[in-house]
Structure formats: structure tokens, C-alpha cells
Amino acid sequence: MPAYETLKRQLSRISDDTAHLIDEAEKITERVDEGFSQWKTTCQIISEQISEETMRVAVVGAIKSGKSTFVNTLFGGDYLKRGAGVVTSIVTRVRTGSRLRATLYLKNWDEINRDIDQASVLLPARKSSAEANHADIRREKDRQILGRALADLAADQLISNDTRSAGSVLLASYLNGYDRVQQVVQADYATVVFGNDRFALHRDFVGDDAMAVYLNDVLLEIDTPGLGEGVEIADCQGSDSPNPLHLAMIQDYLMLAHLTVYVVSSRTGLRQADIRFLSMIRNMGILETVVFVVNCDLSEHESLDDLSEGLRKIEADLSLICPGPQMFAFSALFLLMSQMESDLPQRDRDRLTHWRRETAMVDFASAEQGRFQQYLEQKIRRERTSLLLKNHLERLEIVAGGIGSWIDFNLDLLARDAGGARELADRVHSQRGRLERMKLTVKNTMDGAVSQVKRDLKTAIDRFFDDHADGVVAGVVRFVRSYQVEMHRYDASLLNAGFAKTLYMVFQEFKQALDAHMAETVNPLVIRFVRSQEKNLMGYLDEIAGPYGAMIDEALAQYTNAMDEGKVSKVLESRPIGFGSNLESIRKVAGLSLPPAAATMHYSAQIKTEAVMRFGFYKIVNLVKKTMRKSADKVHQEQFLALASGVKRMKRETERSVLFHLKDYKENIKFQYMLKLADAAATVLYGQMLERFQHHGADLSQLVELISEQRLDKANVSASLERMRSASRSLQDKIGDLKADLGQLNG
Length: 747
Ligand SMILES: Nc1nc2c(ncn2[C@@H]2O[C@H](COP(=O)(O)OP(=O)(O)OP(=O)(O)O)[C@@H](O)[C@H]2O)c(=O)[nH]1
Ligand SMILES: [Mg+2]
Description:
By secondary structure, this protein is α/β, with parallel strands linked by helices. Among the domains are: 54-97 and 223-357, Rossmann fold; 112-177, no CATH class; 433-700, no CATH class. The chain has helices at 4-29, 34-52, 67-75, 109-119, 140-155, 166-181, 202-206, 209-212, 244-256, 272-284, 304-321, 332-339, 346-356, 359-414, 418-465, 472-482, 491-497, 499-562, 583-590, 609-627, 632-693, 701-708, 714-746, and strands at residues 55-61, 91-96, 101-106, 191-195, 215-222, 231-236, 259-265, 290-295, 327-330. The protein has a nine-stranded mixed sheet, with helices on both faces. Helix 14 packs antiparallel against helix 23 and helix 20 packs antiparallel against helix 21 (632-693). The chain starts with a helix and ends with a helix. Magnesium ion binds next to helix 3.
């Protein structure tokens, strides 16, 4: 059985050969034909997409559960830093490549400045300076202002290491890293590449928060077979990070993943953070793509019995969220060390030797690891082959079949004398009229269906974001309104640092809580909703198109009959026209993607600082005026009241901005994504229908003309056509064989 890589190359060659055959056919008719160019485009798209077809595997789990160690075992070496303990969480994608290379994808300046704007809402210093026009970290003045503001907060002990808010951490990281990255960040998306000998250096960048904050993600290409071409494994750090932005980054990857490996450490078992994360996965509607790997710490368990007991407990806990979980238990570190034994330092080698003495546990773990390996390989095989089969080979079959029929028909035509050819062409011509009319009907039906489906999509999206009691928007409003600020916690801060800074801290905490609500509750529901709408869309269009497959074939059969004794090749067996798993390639071709998960948190751009501050500020002025005549207690009380009213305004203003923002977000999902997707899907579908109509190839009148005018060297053309016929037949045979091979791999 040939390997996937070989099959992929075969497919690509078939596609090129088919395109070549179309070129030759074009040469014979001496003209460019619409049908031919349609076919050629198909071949071209297939060639391009085959090499990009990627199966994505997400690896998630709590901090220090062994995700990086596990991913390393898949490539047999310490490529990803273990025990990194980085604060800035980044999705690291790893795949097999021709050489060792780390590519760091940087944010662009707009993204960075937007992050900064978001994080500095209500930051006292911003009020006077860059508020009207947005912050730009490239300006020295802006960096100074931000730096001073952060230093101020630190001096007042409002931010210390354990109370630092996500916002102030982000700002501090951006400022700290600026000097080192300013040369590489660009207005457009830029990358930094560490190849071969410099590979390990990428860790200095990724491992330093101040620089890592400038990254969108990281791709490692490893020059070992790994899991094979076209498989990408993503180490998703930070699934239990308190920073909702990290969760959003992971959600973006999970959305597109074909398989999710959830790593649980046997040392800790399932914890609250795991349950939360898994509930989120469930709400996203992708629990069925999840398998569990329990990373067994061999030092932690006294015996196999003890380990088994732990595993039973984990399985029972998991079952509450994910009934009948698919679970594998082995030690990632043990496996990795065994793989790299000769390169290990003595200390690790001793550890390995020590572990090996635990034969019962080691045997159990190896058996489990083997079981997992088998599972993974099968899963990859299936996923990749079905991507190739459904997305490409079946389309190629239609095109190759079509060009084959065209060759047959023209050979038949050439066998006639000029009169016979003319007569046949006339007959065919009237049949062609029928086909053209039918094409028009199909087009109209499709157009109608697309309008309808777009109307339905709009309605569904509006309803999802409506203000009904159990909707996400109402949920957010409830969250904002019921958020309680424990005022007494800010007593000291009010006295020492004053109103404005205290309000900033209050807002930071509030924003963090609200963002967490967005990431954990709103995003999964939105994602699930969008996925279900995508599914409806595809199903609906398929339903519309399905019957046309048979109708087109019937019309083509009549067309063939009209050519009576023209021994035209068999009509393709009727196959329903459909998308299969094409959604992803439709997105790719149309350049569409859902707004990133973090988009739900971008509401703070709408917050008008003055609206929150004005009242409080007025109070403060009053306060200062009266301070002289008041007791300390009284002053404190008034400060307290000022803060209380500031908080009230903050909540009201946030609610307003969130509502405004979600409306905007809704319209984006509608117009920038779903409706465009509907159009793109319909275009693809219509193209597939045209391809089918095209089955008997180009308009024949040109060739008949050439024959009757005797401008065509019949013998010559016949010889070319004969050559093409044998090429076409061998092509179709190859397609048949490849289909069988892929089918077998898939089975
Ligand atoms: N004793 C023991 N240690 C392990 C095992 N697996 C991983 N470790 C160690 O545990 C530490 C954390 O493992 P990582 O693979 O970095 O965990 P992670 O999930 O990637 O951690 P974060 O990326 O920080 O969330 C590392 O020092 C590993 O060497 C194991 O099976 N046994
Ligand atoms: Mg890690």
C-alpha cells in the first residue's frame, strides 16, 4: 500500500496531466473555450490545494500537564521547551518539514496599538494625552506616558506581582520588549525565522514575555518524519491561564482542529480548571473531536494498582462531562527519554533506568502508548485521505471523464465525411440549445436558493443576538449589572493613590471578569451557533443541487442519444453533486475567516472615558475644596461615595459599549462572514454543475466548420486525438486505482 505522501504526489501529477490534455484539446480546436478554461481552473485549484491540505491536531490541557513533552514525543526530540512556565501563552504549531526551522509570526503595529488602547482604558495618564488620537507605541512620547503611568501605579502599590491585572501586564510587556522588536515589527504582518543551527534561539524570543507579547503564533518545522506531511500539531499553552485573551487564541485553533488531544497529568488528576475548560469545549460543540491522554508520572505512583486506581478516578470524573471518554494512559517523559536516550545527560539516564525497574507500570504504559499510536495513525490516515478524496479526486474524475468524452466524440466526428459531420453537428446543435436553457434554469434556481438562504441566515443571526432573556446579549447585560465591586477592598488604595488610579484598578478587575465571561460563555455559544449555521447552509445548498445532478446526467444522455450512432463514451454514473467536507476549502478560496474569538472583547474601544470620569472628577474637586473643613472620616466617606458613583458609571458605560460592540460584531459575522460564505459556497456549487454540463466538452461547431472547409488535416488531427485518447484512458485508469487506494486507506 503506497504511503499517503506518494498518493498525494500521484494525485497532483494526475491533475497536471489532465490540465495538459486540456491544453492539447484547445490546440486542436484552435480556440479558447469557456468549458475548457473552467476545467483548467479546476485542475489548477486542485494542484494548489493538494499541497496545502492540512490535518490539524490541537493539544490542550492544564498548565504543566505535559503538553509540550507529549508533542515532543511525536517528533522524537526536545524541540518544544518543556517546563517553560511562560506567562505569555502562545499556540505553537509543529509540523514535519524539509529542514529545522522556527517561524515566528509577529503582530502588526495596528494590532499592537489596538491592544494597548484596550488595555489602557481609564489609565489615568491617558486622559490628558493620547486619548483623542489613539496610542502609538512607536511614538516616544506615548511610551513615556504609558511608562510613567505604570510606574505610578506600581509606586502606589496598586500593581505588585500578584495583583497585576492582565491589562497592566500587557502594557508592561509591550513597553519592555519595544526596543528589541521595533526593528522587526512592521505595518504588515512580518515573520522572524530561526533556521537550522539557529533553531534553538527562537526560544529566547518565545520564552521572554516582553517579546512573546508581540507574537501572534509560532510554527516549528522539524526535519523528522513525525506524523507525516500535512499534519499539524499545535501545543496550546495557557488553556487555564487567567488571561481570557489566551483562551480566545486557543478557541481560534480549536475551531479548525480535526482532533483535540486533552492532556491530564496523573499527578494532579482532573481539576477545576480542567472541568471549566472541558465544559467550554462542550459548549463549542466539539467534544466529539476530543481524546484524552493521561500523562502518567511514573515517580508519583507506587505500583500499577495505585496508578490504575488514579486512572479510574480520572475516567469517572471525565465521564461526567464527556460520556464514554476515549482515554489513553502513558508517560510522555518516559517515552521522550527513551527516544533520546543516547543524547541524555547522566542524571536523566539514571532516572530512566530507575523508571525501567517499574516493569509492571512500564509494560502497561507501553501497551497504552502503542494503542494510542495506532489510534492516532488511523485517525490521521482517515482524515487526510478523506480530505484528498472528497475535495480533489472526485472533482478531478469528473474533469478527466469529461475530456475523455470530448476526445471520443471528436474522433467519431472526424470519421465522417463533411456532410455527415455537418448533419451530426446540426442535430447536436439543437440539443445544445436545450442544455443551455437548462443551465439557465439551474443558474436561476441557484440564485433563488442563495437569496433565500441568505435571508434565513440574516434572520437566524439577528435572532441569536436578539435581546431575548436566554440569549448571549442578555447574558452579558446581566453579567455587567450584577457585577459587584467589593468597595472596602479599595479603602487603602483610595486614601493613598486617589480616585483615578483606584478606578482604573477597579475597571481592570471588572474588565478581566467580563472578558472571562466573553471567552468562557459567549464565544463557545457563538462558535457553536456559527458552526450550526454553516452546516445548515451546506445542507440546504446540497439539497437544492442534489436533484440537478441526476437531471443534468439525463439531459446529457439525451444529448448523447441525439448523436445516434456516434459511439460516444459512457455517461458518468450519476453522482449527487455535493460539497462533502469542502467547507474549509471554500473558506480558503474565498479568503474568509470568522472574526477571531478575541473580537468579542474589543468592546473597550467604545468606552468613553470622560463619561466614567466626569462625575467622579467633579466630586473630587468638591472634595478637595471642602477638605479643610472636614474630619478625616468624612473625607473618606465622600471619597467612597465618589468611587461608588464612578463604579456605577463605569458599569453603565461598559454596558452601553458592549451592546454597541456586539451589534457591530453581529453585523460582521453576518456580512463579512456568513453571507459571503453563502455566496462562495454557491459559486463553488454552480461551478461543479457547469463542470458536469461540460461533460461533452466544447461547442463542436468550430471543429465541424474546420472539417467542412477542409482546413483541417483530418489524418493529423485524428492521430493527435488517438494519442490523446490513450493518454486520457490511462489517466482515467490511474484515477480509478488511486481512488481504490485512497478508499482502502480510508477504510
Ligand atoms: N516526572 C515526570 N515529569 C514529567 C512528565 N511529563 C512531563 N514532565 C515534566 O513536567 C514539566 C512540565 O511538562 P511540560 O511538558 O512542559 O508541560 P506543559 O503542559 O507543556 O506545561 P505548560 O506549557 O507550562 O502549560 C517538565 O519539566 C517535564 O519534563 C512525567 O511523565 N513525569
Ligand atoms: Mg508547554
